[in-house]
Design a protein that fits this description.
This protein is α+β, with helices and mostly antiparallel strands and 359 residues long. Helices cover 57% and strands 12% of the residues. A hairpin with a 2-residue loop joins strand 4 and strand 5. It is elongated and about 85 Å long. The N terminus is likely disordered.
Length: 359
């Protein structure tokens, strides 16, 4: 069986009986890969995270002092939330740094998924801290042995609102994900791939922004609670009640990050890629009669890989099919990694279970 393999960013070659053909096929007959430099989104993400980390740790110290002086569990909850954010920012910075390490024989895709693991660790950490704070709130309600310094609580929470607004503006994303684009030439597709990566949202920035969003809403709640306690001192129970409400909010806002991180780690298909559309794109190529073993999976949220066996009619040039397939797929989707295997049609393929398109 004749096989042709293609991998994005590497020279494509025809392999017949295990021997490499003398003339490699490249995309558009040019050098087919661009240098894999640090993407714009990673540089921007690192700058944003460094700024956010400095702001976060500064206010965290101030809020710890304010929480201690005011005896407010709500302030302490916010400070603990900031501590978790700080840890999350540091994990994210480390993940972005280690993701730049070059691929090796033993790590063929590099360390790109380190950022996903970093975001997952960050979210799981905040869940643990949230559980501890809920326990403390329950204990406070049961014992009812606490006093709140409303003035200090009010001032601290007001500062918290301002700081979280600044953090939110620092981490806010302006990019949008674009799934389907039609680009005529493969050279343009390679350039567009770099631009597309810089447009996508870095998962660690998203995780950090969700942390800050939760902090902001929490700070608003603490500020309102401080106003209530200031004017109605006997209503001090709103302090632990705020902790319960904010804990639920944290779980809700972080669930999406957990879900997307798990999809990546389980090598699921990105939600912005249409499987049937990719399949039909292959089938629209002249000479292609079937496609099987089509697999599309996420390396990270902004890097997608594809592998497929493309079945052609007898007498059709595998070289032409390879070039046409790479041109169409790269031009429309800009996959980070792609491997195509060209196969001659055999009747048994119609009955082979492994050759059937999955549901």
């Amino acid at each position: 069986m004749m096989q042709v393999r293609l991998k994005l960013h590497t020279v494509s070659t025809i392999v017949t009986d295990g021997r490499k053909a003398p003339n490699p096929i490249t995309i558009a007959d040019e050098h087919c890969h661009s240098d894999r430099k640090e993407s714009t989104v990673d540089k921007r993400a690192r700058r944003k995270l460094i700024t956010a980390t400095i702001l976060c740790v500064t206010f965290m110290i101030a809020e710890c002092i304010g929480g201690y002086l005011s005896s407010s569990l709500a302030i302490a909850t916010d400070a603990a939330h900031l501590l978790t954010d700080f840890a999350g920012f540091m994990i994210s910075l480390f993940a972005i740094w280690i993701a730049q390490r070059k691929p090796t024989r033993y790590m063929p895709f590099g360390w790109h998924r380190a950022e996903v693991i970093g975001a997952l660790t960050s979210v799981l950490t905040i869940w643990v801290v949230t559980g501890v704070l809920v326990y403390m709130a329950v204990e406070r309600i049961i014992n009812d042995n606490y006093e709140i310094e409303a003035v200090i609580m009010l001032i601290t929470s007001a500062i918290g609102v301002v700081v979280n607004i600044v953090l939110g503006l620092t981490l806010h994303q302006h990019g949008h994900t674009h799934g389907n684009r039609s680009i005529r030439h493969v050279e343009e597709a390679v350039d567009a791939h770099v631009a597309d990566s810089s447009q996508r949202t870095n998962i660690n920035i998203r995780a950090a922004f969700i942390h800050v969003l939760g902090d902001f809403i929490q700070s608003i709640g603490v500020f309102i609670a401080a106003l209530i306690i200031f004017f109605l001192p006997t209503w001090k129970i709103v302090d632990p009640i705020c902790t319960f409400l904010f804990s639920i909010l944290v779980l809700i806002t972080t669930f999406a990050i957990i879900k997307e991180a798990i999809v990546v780690l389980m090598e699921g298909m990105p939600k912005d890629v249409d499987f049937n559309d990719v399949l039909n794109t292959f089938l629209s190529i002249e000479g292609v009669v079937a496609v099987h073993n089509l697999r599309i999976w996420a390396l990270t949220l902004d890097k997608t890989a594809l592998a497929a066996h493309v079945v052609i009619k007898p007498g059709v040039s595998p070289s032409d099919v390879l070039k046409e397939a790479s041109k169409k797929i790269h031009g429309k989707y800009n996959f980070f990694e792609m491997t195509l295997q060209i196969e001659n049609f055999q009747p048994k393929m119609e009955y082979c279970k492994q050759c059937q398109v999955p549901n």
